[in-house]
Amino acid sequence: MEPEDLDFLYQIENDITLWDVGITNVPYSRYVLYNYLSECKNDIYTDKQLRLMITTADHICVGIIDLVNFDPKHLRAELGIAIQKPYRGKGYGRAAILKMLQYAHDVIHLHQVYVVISEDNIQCLKLFQEIGFTEGAILKQWLYHNGAWQAAKLLHFFCK
């Protein structure tokens, strides 16, 4: 991420429709995100995460993809992705996931990448399964949304 990504990051991090799939439920200030950008080393071994912007061929930012919860001992990380609504269903997410998996294999030498997806997010589950993720577990009452608990699925991809 670059300093000029601040406004886009601010928009994504404060999109309350995405909070159900993340771990936050409070908005971030520009100041906090500016500090995050300036302090981030862009080194997965130091930061324990890697966040990349997803752009179109003409450099329009359409989303963010990241590897978080990086575990260097067990060579695994959790993948997260957020695509802005107008750009969903156009192949940007699939392309970004495939590039990230290639990076995870070729550069970081991960053994496993995993995702946690709400059981009712059929479109997202289908995308990851088409890419080659397989179901590992059902996490009962894992996500809290609109006053109710929802199950989530843990899917994993073994890097070869």
TrEMBL record:
Transmembrane segments: none annotated. Residues 1-156 form the N-acetyltransferase domain. Gene3D superfamilies: 3.40.630.30. PROSITE patterns: GNAT (PS51186). It comes from the Bacteria. InterPro entries: Acyl_CoA_acyltransferase, GNAT_dom. This is GNAT family N-acetyltransferase. The lineage of its organism: Bacteria, Pseudomonadati, Bacteroidota, Bacteroidia, Bacteroidales.
